[in-house]
Amino acid sequence: QVQLAESGGGLVQAGGSLRLSCAASGSMFSSDAMGWYRQAPGNQRELVASITLGGRTTYADSVKGRFTISRGKAKNTVYLQMNSLKPEDTDVYYCKADFPGYSDYPGDHWGQGTQVTVSS
Fold first, then answer.
1. Within a 10 A sphere around the Cβ of 17, how many other Cβ atoms?
2. What is the pLDDT along the chain (120 residues), one digit of tens a residue?
3. Which residues does 81 contact at the CB level (< 8 Å), separation at least 6?
4. ∠94-36-86 over CA atoms, to 5°?
5. What is the pLDDT of residues 71-87, one digit of tens each?
6. How far apart are CA 107 and CA 96, in angstroms?
7. Secondary structure of residue 49 in the 3-state scheme
8. SS3 28
9. 61 CB contacts (<8 Å, ≥6 apart)?
10. d(CA 60, CA 49)
11. Distance of CA 90 to the CA centre of its chain
């Protein structure tokens, strides 16, 4: 089965930076897209940024110009560079990998989440 391992969360002061990493293992195939989502207690999970295998990126308006998503050289790895962090960026961040229908484990797969806390 596919497993996603996230790292890089933590506590940072407003204006600081963090870099999240995610690696999906268990599939012989490359994911179509990978992305980062965030969710606060009681809220719906929302897209932060995503990137396709071809490199097309999508960002939430609230993070444009501050966050950068990129895919690693290793298969099924993705990074989220977060700069100029704000207290409102505080959330649990989840990595998602979307595998194609013909793959060994098709569909969406989620990581366990990593906490990002930005102090004011």
1. 12
2. 999 999 999 999 999 999 999 999 999 999 999 999 999 888 999 999 999 999 999 999 999 999 999 999 999 999 999 999 999 999 999 999 999 999 999 999 999 999 999 999
3. 17, 19, 67, 68, 69, 70
4. 90
5. 999 999 999 999 999 99
6. 10
7. strand
8. coil
9. none
10. 6
11. 14
Token digits for 110? 């989620």
Question: How does 89-120 read in b/e, with b if 16+ C-beta sit within 10 Å?
Answer: bbbbbbbbbbbeeebeeeeebebebbebebee
Per the CB < 8 A criterion, the answer to whether 97 and 46 are in contact is no
pLDDT digits (tens, 9 = 90+) for 58-73: 999 999 999 999 999 9
Q: State both tokens at 23.
A: 């690696």
**Do 82 and 89 meet the contact criterion of CB atoms below 8 Å apart?**
yes
Q: Which amino acid is at 77?
A: T
For 41-76, b/e burial (b = at least 16 CB within 10 A) is eeeeeeebbbbeeeeeeebeeebeeebbbebeeeeb
Tokens of residue 32, six digits: 């179509």
